[in-house]
């Protein structure tokens, strides 16, 4: 984007809230489109797979990254670790415990098991980030930055949701959004660590990001039925990109402009145009498949 980012402390709180919301959407699109690309591979649709991978890259490395700059998401290494510790602590002590308890009450035992397992993972992540923060902020302590984080990738299979409760399904979707956002944030935090001469911290962030995407998000996606056949995936993609391009981003841009955040508004309007181009590109793939997407009422 041509517009330069304003200082983050100059951004109106309402603008910050809307940009954060849009960033979460971009992060979710990134990881979802990567899963859709693999499904297209399985159906021997390489042109569709390539489009998904290219778009996924744009969502993270252009849209998410640009918006992160608008609100000053990435700070120094100590601040990034502090944010990560807070997020992992909330997931470990509150969010996943609540989701597991509700899933058990609703009879979704597999989801309850998964939520509890992921919560324990997040607690381990929190402790590693705490150790890293001590090493960064108190070098004389002798603490070292741990890098012993390994993802155990889960293959996302196409199919319907595997839970019976609508509440569990909504919780799975909320967890997917959280894991996608963590993946995107940790990717940028790892990049900052590498740029500032902290290769061990970069590895910790990037390896944790891999767990969030290839393990946690993937396991949630399987239970939530997040991936279907490519035709269905394309229709969902077009609907989402069209909504962002015609309603969400223009609306956020108008509100940013009204709040005096004109540079933010310019970036968001540019992103809206990108999303409409994405919708058009995916619509072309649907046409080649000889399929029609349902029209919105």
UniProtKB/TrEMBL annotation:
SUPFAM superfamilies: Ferritin-like. Pfam families: Rubrerythrin. InterPro entries: Ferritin-like, Ferritin-like_diiron, Ferritin-like_SF, Rbr2/Nigerythrin, Rr_diiron-bd_dom. Residues 9-140, 162-293 form the Ferritin-like diiron domain. Residues 1-24 are annotated as: Disordered. It comes from the Bacteria. PANTHER family: RUBRERYTHRIN (PTHR33746). This is Ferritin-like diiron domain-containing protein. It comes from Microbispora amethystogenes.
């Amino acid at each position: 984007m041509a517009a330069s980012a304003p200082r983050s402390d100059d951004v109106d709180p309402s603008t910050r809230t809307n940009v954060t919301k849009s960033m979460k959407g971009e992060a979710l699109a990134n990881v979802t489109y990567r899963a859709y690309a693999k499904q297209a591979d399985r159906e021997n649709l390489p042109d569709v797979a390539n489009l998904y991978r290219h778009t996924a890259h744009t969502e993270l490395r252009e849209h998410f990254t640009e918006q992160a700059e608008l609100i000053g998401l990435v700070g120094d290494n100590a601040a990034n670790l502090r944010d990560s510790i807070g997020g992992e602590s909330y997931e470990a002590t509150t969010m996943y415990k609540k989701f597991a308890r509700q899933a058990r009450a609703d009879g979704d035992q597999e989801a309850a098991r998964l939520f509890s397992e992921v919560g324990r993972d997040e607690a381990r992540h929190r402790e590693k980030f705490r150790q890293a923060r001590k090493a960064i902020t108190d070098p004389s302590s002798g603490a070292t930055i741990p890098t012993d984080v390994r993802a155990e990738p889960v293959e996302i299979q196409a199919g319907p949701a595997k839970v019976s409760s609508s509440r569990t399904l909504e919780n799975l979707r909320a967890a997917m959004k959280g894991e996608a956002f963590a993946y995107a944030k940790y990717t940028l935090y790892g990049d900052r660590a590498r740029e500032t001469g902290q290769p061990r911290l970069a590895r910790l962030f990037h390896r944790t990001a891999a767990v969030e995407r290839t393990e946690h998000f993937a396991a949630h996606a399987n239970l939530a039925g997040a991936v279907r056949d490519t035709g269905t995936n394309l229709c969902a993609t077009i609907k989402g990109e069209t909504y962002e391009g015609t309603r969400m981003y223009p609306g956020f841009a108008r509100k940013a402009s009204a709040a005096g955040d004109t540079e933010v508004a310019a970036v968001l309007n540019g992103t809206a145009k990108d999303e409409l181009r994405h919708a058009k590109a995916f619509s072309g793939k649907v046409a080649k498949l000889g399929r029609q997407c349902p029209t919105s009422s």
